[in-house]
């Protein structure tokens, strides 16, 4: 492999000092003793925040770089309050070469960083500090919103005892209106957050549920005190006019609460601005090229190093990287192609005769000529017949009425395999309702809005083909694993129902693409029985196609893997003598990769990392279209090899190549390998449309892309 050097968004500050390696230990005594249902680490974390100073949980107590300011206090648990007192336990010697001790040193470093940010920058009107986020000046504004640029910072300790600062340049789209003022001119937002801070210096974010127009703030009882008086007593309100109206919100656990529109503000994303028509060009302000982004990160790192850690320099980490060989896609009859859109002209890897329906929302029931011709060309290239059913029109106002149900029933009776839906721009709620109604009749739907430009039309056709269950493209070559399975987890729209996991499986050459979704279950962790059940289904499907078990399986977990999730699956694979590798793929913890001065980035960049968590890990830049087409700086994936015998370079090559095996996008590739990207899309879509809509749907019809 060709070797190149790159810079990371990590800056070395200094080695830890002797006294930092010997923090004080404080034993925590509880009254009463916490029950087994309590999370002791969370209680200790609350105690660390309450006592002040630079302290963090360690075993059954706290370790601290500075003496706690108070020796006793009270924290709230699941169902009751607990009193605590601290007892000085002397100094500890921590070794950064040990994983758990390195983690506690990193938490102390992060605490010192956040305390320093608040002290140094928090008092200035120029900056806004929230935990590890520091925001500077405004770079763009519009009706009801503004964009501020800043940095998200993380301090950690590496295995050699070096203090390392990670700097990520970020943008925050902030509202300029309270929720009450926002609702006077804009739709209800999906999420809201407090206008005031909660300890330790952060603002609580909520999911917006609904307005409660019949309730008054002085009438809502919160256990002996009204909603208005509760907030007024904390100094947040001075009048009922300032309070606004009563709303219902929910936290991330799904618990619901009453709140006030005058004490909330909308949480805005770029997607929200575009959907509301609020100056979509704001997106341009968020793209920063590699050289400019690195320069800004280095400037920030030097300022933090000097003003908080007393270090005059912050040296960027330079790492050795390698360029992996490029993947090669193939279409029907083994023809080589450069991108999935080429398969529309060359022919699908595998296709079958089908009937396609068209539902027109607010328009004439007729097939657009360009769409009709393109569908016929796609079928001809793939050597199959594609019958176009008679189109049906429905009024937008009837998307929850009997006319829609009748129209979908007519299409289902024509044995339609997948449905094209032509619509004007719809709200998310309308789209989800229409998708749900279609899926209940086993009709996966592909939405589109006229006019149909060439690139847009290609993506519509590829999305439709995936929903028909066609296999558009495959990978050419040999790979360590014959089957790759991606696992993700999600929640429904109300966040009250959790899915134990979801998976998509892909054979090494793209011969199988499918989805698997078990029953819903409690808990964020995927239960080991659920994982093994999904792996079994993949193995059985492979055996039906190939007449044997696969020789080797690649298991990909989105986010940090909990070993218990895969214990049973790995034991059963070993018992059957099926080889395996287990890796976790993390989208957000890889930071950034920058070229050295005068260098260039390229996809397929593989960056081995020093062992973290006592496991082999690496960064992988899977998708980068080049500086001529993209101003921004891409994020690499961070991949941790949890278990398995495959050389890490070969794992990196297969994961990189799998990122090209995503057929619904004709010209761009996702950063995640296809099994994980599909699993992520699956749980998001099911969260929107619900589990009950999927009964009887063919597992090879990718209804969620």
From TrEMBL:
Organism this protein belongs to: Thermus scotoductus
A UniProt-annotated Pfam family: PAZ_3
Cross-referenced SMART domains: Piwi
PROSITE patterns referenced in this protein's UniProt entry, alphabetically: PIWI
Database matches in InterPro entries: Ago_mid (IPR054763), Ago_PAZ (IPR040895), Piwi (IPR003165), RNaseH-like_sf (IPR012337), RNaseH_sf (IPR036397)
Domain of life assignment: Bacteria
GO molecular function annotation: nucleic acid binding
UniProt family annotation: Belongs to the argonaute family. Long pAgo subfamily.
Domain Piwi: 435-691
Name of the protein in question: Protein argonaute
């Amino acid at each position: 492999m060709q070797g190149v050097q790159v810079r990371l968004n990590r800056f070395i500050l200094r080695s830890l000092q002797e006294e930092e390696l010997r923090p004080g230990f404080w034993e925590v005594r509880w009254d009463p003793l916490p029950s087994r249902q309590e999370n002791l680490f969370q209680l200790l974390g609350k105690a660390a925040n309450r006592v002040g100073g630079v302290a963090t949980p360690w075993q059954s107590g706290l370790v601290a770089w500075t003496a706690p300011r108070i020796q006793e206090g009270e924290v709230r648990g699941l169902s009751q309050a607990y009193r605590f007192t601290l007892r000085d336990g002397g100094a500890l010697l921590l070794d950064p070469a040990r994983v758990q001790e390195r983690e506690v040193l990193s938490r102390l470093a992060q605490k010192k960083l956040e305390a320093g940010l608040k002290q140094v920058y928090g008092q200035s009107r120029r900056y806004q500090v929230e935990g590890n986020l520091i925001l500077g000046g405004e770079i763009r504004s519009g009706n009801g919103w503004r964009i501020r640029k800043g940095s998200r910072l993380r301090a950690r300790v590496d295995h050699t005892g070096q203090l390392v600062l990670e700097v990520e340049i970020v943008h925050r789209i902030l509202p300029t209106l309270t929720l009450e003022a926002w609702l006077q001119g804009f739709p209800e937002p999906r999420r809201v957050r407090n206008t005031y801070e909660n300890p330790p210096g952060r603002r609580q974010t909520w999911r917006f549920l609904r307005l409660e127009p019949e309730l008054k703030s002085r009438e809502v009882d919160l256990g002996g005190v009204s909603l208005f008086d509760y907030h007024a007593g904390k100094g947040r309100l001075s009048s009922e006019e300032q309070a606004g109206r009563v709303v219902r919100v929910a936290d991330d656990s799904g618990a619901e609460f009453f709140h006030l529109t005058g004490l909330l503000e909308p949480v805005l994303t770029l997607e929200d601005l575009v959907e509301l028509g609020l100056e979509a060009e704001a997106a341009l302000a968020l793209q920063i090229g590699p050289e400019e982004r690195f320069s800004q990160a280095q400037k920030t790192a030097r300022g933090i190093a000097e003003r908080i850690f007393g270090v005059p320099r912050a040296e960027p980490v330079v790492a050795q990287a390698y360029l992996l060989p490029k993947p090669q896609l193939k279409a029907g009859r083994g023809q080589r192609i450069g991108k999935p859109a080429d398969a529309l002209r060359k022919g699908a890897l595998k296709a079958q005769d089908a009937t396609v329906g068209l539902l027109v929302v607010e328009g004439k029931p007729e097939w657009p000529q360009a769409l009709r011709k393109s569908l016929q060309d796609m079928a001809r290239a793939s050597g199959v017949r594609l019958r176009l059913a008679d189109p049906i029109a429905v009024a937008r106002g009837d998307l929850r009425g009997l006319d829609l149900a009748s129209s979908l029933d007519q299409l289902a009776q024509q044995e339609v395999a997948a449905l094209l839906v032509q619509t004007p721009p719809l709200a998310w709620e309308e789209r989800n309702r229409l998708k749900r109604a279609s899926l209940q009749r086993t009709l996966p739907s592909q939405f589109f809005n006229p006019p149909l430009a060439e690139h847009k039309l290609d993506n519509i056709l590829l999305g439709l083909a995936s929903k028909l269950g066609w296999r558009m493209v495959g990978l050419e070559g040999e790979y360590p694993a014959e089957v790759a399975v991606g696992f993700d987890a999600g929640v429904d729209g109300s966040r009250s129902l959790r899915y134990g996991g979801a998976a998509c499986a892909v054979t090494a050459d793209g011969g199988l693409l499918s989805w698997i979704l078990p029953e819903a279950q409690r808990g964020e962790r995927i239960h080991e029985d659920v994982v093994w059940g999904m792996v079994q289904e993949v193995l059985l499907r492979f055996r039906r196609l190939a007449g044997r078990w696969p020789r080797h399986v690649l298991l990909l977990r989105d986010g940090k893997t909990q070993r218990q999730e895969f214990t049973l699956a790995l034991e059963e694979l070993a018992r059957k003598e099926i080889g395996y590798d287990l890796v976790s793929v993390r989208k957000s913890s890889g930071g950034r990769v920058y070229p050295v001065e005068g260098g260039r980035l390229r996809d397929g960049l593989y960056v081995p990392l020093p062992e973290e968590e006592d496991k082999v890990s690496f960064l992988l830049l899977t998708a980068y279209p080049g500086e001529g087409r993209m101003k921004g700086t891409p994020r690499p994936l961070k991949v941790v090899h949890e278990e398995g015998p495959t050389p890490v370079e070969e794992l990196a090559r297969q994961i990189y190549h799998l990122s090209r095996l995503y057929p619904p996008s004709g010209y761009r590739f996702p950063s995640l390998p296809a099994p994980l990207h599909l699993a992520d899309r699956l749980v998001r879509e099911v969260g929107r449309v619900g589990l009950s809509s999927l009964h009887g749907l063919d597992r090879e019809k990718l209804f969620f892309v």
